[in-house]
Amino acid sequence: MALSYARGLIIQLSRVAAASTEDVNETIKHAQIAHETGVWSKMPAVTRSKVLSKLARILESRIQEIAEIETRQTGRALREMKAQLGRLPDWLDYYAALLRTNHAYVAPTQGKLINYVQRVPLGVVAQITPFNHPLLIAVKKIAPALAAGNCVIVKPSELAPISVLEFAKMAESAGVPPGVLSVLPGFGPTTGKTLVSHPLIRKVDITAGTATGRAIGSIVGANLASYTAELGGKAPIVVFNDADLDSAVNGAAFACFVASGQTCVSGTRLIVQDGIYLTFMAKFLEKVEGIRARMGDPLNPKSTMGTVISMRQLEKIEAMMSRSKGAVLAGGKRLEGKSELDGYDFSKGAFFPPTVVADVGVEDELWQEEVFGPVVVVKNFQTEDEGVRLANNCKYGLGAGIWTQDLSRAHRVSAEMEAGLTWVNTHHRNDPSSPWGGMKESGIGRENGLEAFAAYTQSKSTIVNIASAEETREVDDWFAETSEGKRYG
User: Could you name the active-site residues (predicted)?
Assistant: First the structure.
């Protein structure tokens, strides 16, 4: 059952059946047949490119409709969803273009041989996608997998499956053959586990928490399948004395509170140099109050920030806040009463305000663990080295932000950041051409770009002897009675 927190405490949007073990096995069987027949895997690259381009145009025409579905599923502000989903056709267009420009190569093999190397699809691949960006993350994974010629099975979050199901219908109308893209709604411990455990699955690609990533990784490894995992994050935002103050405040607020803090690169640790700390914090807290004052109905285009995904997540955030010893400078408790923006009743949803906590030690749970909500801890520092140490004092390493007008410092500090993504004077920028993934406990492998396409393929060498038959008889008879000078390897 897909539920909404956008209007009313719980509203049923639609009823979605959870895939059973039999459903999963049958879907994999059909996908394997589709792969073996070559209906997609052996289709000319230019034809696959045309299908992906057509799919991009279909998706483009339905952005407003899908944005409203996403908002009703997740409670995120409509203005966020429209802006985010408007970018999704770019991923399909990028990989469609890549298919027209990607080339095999000839390896410099010794002797009278031609060794050409091609990238061929893996086969049937599985993808596990989360609730926070339901269609964005799904398309980021689906686009390179389809471009590479694989058959794809997606298990979306049980909290937000509708937009992914709609996308599968769009793919079919664009010309993706039956069995090539399937969506299996369901729960992780049942549907998800059955899917990733199947021996015919040749790659698993997930976005999830680190504990889930470890558990799935052990299953995938036992099947000798490929694995990509984008996992947890605890992004530091390091603001230096020379940063443009207003830009840094605006950028930090976006990093911390977009998507109600429910992103893996959310700026959850705000680290500000002492020379501007007081001035920065005064402006930042003013910004935070402005965000809170304009929270309302998530479907209101003027609403700044929506709900968190569920009441269960709201209670988790509250529990983490209750265990912290830090000083709450803003927010900290669920919203109640009526919205100042539009009179919306906050009791009809899982609303938590933008929250700022100071005086938190680096051993505190709020510093070390992912909250997945609009909660940021703040700390000041003196020297550049101290700022870098604080930023890296965490088990996660997905995203990081640096704010400075010193070009040398920007490059120097970025080089020291233990993160797969580092933004300078901006945050959360994402493009289909830009690799996306983490270090340390934030995952393995990369989404986006050439790396994602390569990860959905395997190399295949074809080695052709071009010597004449006479020369081959002379040179390649290893067991000839006179074997001196014969070639081996």
Answer: 230
CA distance 368 to 393: 8
For 21-231+442-461, CATH number out of 3.40.605.10, 3.20.20.70, 3.90.1010.10, 3.40.1360.10 equals: 3.40.605.10
The boundaries of every CATH 3.40.309.10 domain in the chain are 235-424
For 201, residues 6+ apart whose C-beta sits below 8 A from its C-beta are: 28, 124, 125, 126, 153, 195, 223, 225
Q: Which of 70, 80, 158, 230 is catalytic?
A: 230
Length of the chain: 489
User: Does residue 3 surpass a pLDDT of 60?
Assistant: no
What pTM was computed for the model?
0.93
Q: How many CB atoms lie within 10 A of CB 202?
A: 22
Give the bridge partners for 399, in sequence order. Answer: 421
Q: State the span(s) of the chain assigned CATH 3.40.605.10.
A: 21-231+442-461
Residues ≥6 apart with Cβ < 8 Å to 338: 344, 345, 346
Average pLDDT over residues 64-90: 96
Q: Between 180 and 483, where is the model more confident?
A: 180
Three-state SS for 87-135 is CHHHHHHHHHHHHHHCCCEEECCCCCEEEEEEEEECCEEEEECCCCCHH
Superfamily of domain 235-424: Aldehyde Dehydrogenase; Chain A, domain 2 (3.40.309.10)
DSSP string, 225-248: -EEEEE----EEEEE-TTS-HHHH
